[in-house]
Fold this protein.
Amino acid sequence: TQLLEQSPQFLSIQEGENLTVYCNSSSVFSSLQWYRQEPGEGPVLLVTVVTGGEVKKLKRLTFQFGDARKDSSLHITAAQPGDTGLYLCAGTSGTYKYIFGTGTRLKVLA
Amino acid sequence: DVKVTQSSRYLVKRTGEKVFLECVQDMDHENMFWYRQDPGLGLRLIYFSYDVKMKEKGDIPEGYSVSREKKERFSLILESASTNQTSMYLCASSDRTYNEQFFGPGTRLTVL
């Protein structure tokens, strides 16, 4: 069974701090997506990574796909209250099956 | 921008009622999905469809059925709602090139 484990599960930090969220699996994925979900809303796609070692930046967010395409990380620089939410990673091997991570609930305090 | 819309944001139904949840996407995506999301259980796939009139069971199809008569529309049907189907229901679509899933805003269903 494919699993995607995210860590940490919960994170509460002060505005301006940096943080990193990890997404790990023993399986190889052809692509991996990161989403942010706010309470009562659907997940919003932030980025897709497809190449081993790939790094993508979205303003203060930096996403990296592991060389072996089994893991990924999301780094947020100078977190802001607007970054608060549930962060989900999801991997796919090119079929219709998407494996979702367990989620990281981030709270950024002003 | 990809847009996935769901027919209702909030729905309250009684046990035994038939419930229809509709999802429409405007990006000509081949694939469409229905998930439910529950605290501590994450997202679980109910059904998906890779083409019109084609459907495949996901991980938890019991108590649900689906219909895809048009490419842009994917419906989830609860034949006889039960309290354990109270949940957040999320529809998603994806293309076959990039495999990126785009989600709708969700329907919070409460079955009394």
